[in-house]
Design a protein that fits this description.
- The protein is an alpha/beta fold.
- It folds into 3 domains: 3-141; 179-233, Alpha-Beta Plaits (2-Layer Sandwich); 237-449, Rossmann fold (3-Layer(aba) Sandwich), CATH 3.40.50.150.
- Helices cover 45% and strands 14% of the residues.
- It is built from 22 helices and 13 strands.
- It has helices spanning 3-19, 24-33, 40-55, 57-67, 83-98, 103-109, 122-131, 143-146, 154-161, 165-171, 189-198, 225-228, 237-245, 263-271, 285-289, 291-298, 311-316, 342-345, 348-368, 388-397, 406-414, 434-437, and strands spanning 178-182, 203-205, 212-215, 232-234, 253-256, 277-281, 303-306, 321-327, 369-379, 401-404, 425-426, 429-432, 442-449.
- The termini are far apart.
Amino acid sequence: MTPAARIAAVIELVQAIEADPRPAERCVADYLRGRRYIGAKDRRAVADAVFAWLRARARTDWWLARAAPADGARDGASGGASGGAQARAAVLALLALVEGRAAAEIAALFDGSRYGPAPLSDGEGALVARLAGRSLDDPAQPDWVRLECPEWLLAAFGAAFGSGRDRELAALIAAAPLDLRVNALKGDREQARAALADEGIEAAPTPLSPWGLRVAGRRAVTAGAAYRAGLIEPQDEGSQLVALLCDARPGLAVADLCAGGGGKTLALAAAMGNDGRLVALDRDEARLARARPRLRRAGADLAELHGPPDAAWLAAEAGRFDRVLIDAPCSGTGTWRRQPDARWRLTETDLARYRAAQAALLGDGAGLLRPGGRLVYATCSLLPAENREQIAAFLAAHPDFAVVPAAEAWQAALGAPPACLPSPFEGDFLTVTPARHGCDGFFAAVLARRSGRA
């Protein structure tokens, strides 16, 4: 692709994302899947540009609202411009403010060639002249714009992090690294590093998870022999820590109540050494079905896949599990680095719906535990309403449960945490964040059932 053709593809994708309620990642994947003729480097360049725009969306929109020419080349506030014109303006802002290109260079990319975008209109040329040379960040921007955070969520982040709010939100704007989990059923971390090195991929141990490797740069690890052999699996380090806190040992009965595509189920199977009972459940049966080939590749023979846990199943299995993991559906605020558009799709109604689902799942999970068993509740959220407040409400309603301090659970499963990073514990709970620990944001609470009462 020529540079102009790449820009045309970015414009098409921006317009598609604006019109589609699905996550941007799916829109990008569908677009590229339908254009097999686009080479690997061009695919990466187009996707990188789209995600760079998504990471700077509030700030570029802020500038466009101030720099748009009077002829309406872009009127995002009123919706007066067509979708195509809005997408072109968004890409012009990306080129000028995020990539720092000069006005003449931008104009040259809009060359009207066969696969390139149409030449700039007079209004678009004026817009570029107003934006070129400016910094993406500006002291006049409100906090929610500067931090790329919905205004209604600023107070919740302030409650969670206090004076550290801005640092945490700034870290959520950056791109996430590629973390891998080494499958203990197939080998150890050094064997995995050597296998990746044979593929020309450099990987370093993650600082917190003993199963983790962090890959330098963006590499297509799923095309390599180590992945095909089941030795590695992409999984953020924070997600690995949640599975480790379960302390799922050989011979135990373990339920993964929100298994999704099976990421943590795979980690639990490895921790159990394929010995015991492991049941993976999820309300989205299509998503759960995608775990089957992953389990086969990993050699995880003990896992049973089960659809939605209805009342009959919950009653039949009551009190039969030693461990229950609830990786609850949530706002996903801790994963905004990977899904930068998710912050703008989240609504207060969504948050209320997630909280109701979390409370219901905690109740279901409690009934499955035997006396002395442990329930691990986790979210990839950084909001107190989905984390500490949920646990407080659960404990008030279930006096037969008590908190096991996360540091104590960590010590039993992993030994002493490394001193090279800020502590991953806040009070009795695990809390890791991109700013402090370099992984996605996760919360986890370990709860023990101390009597036989349901």
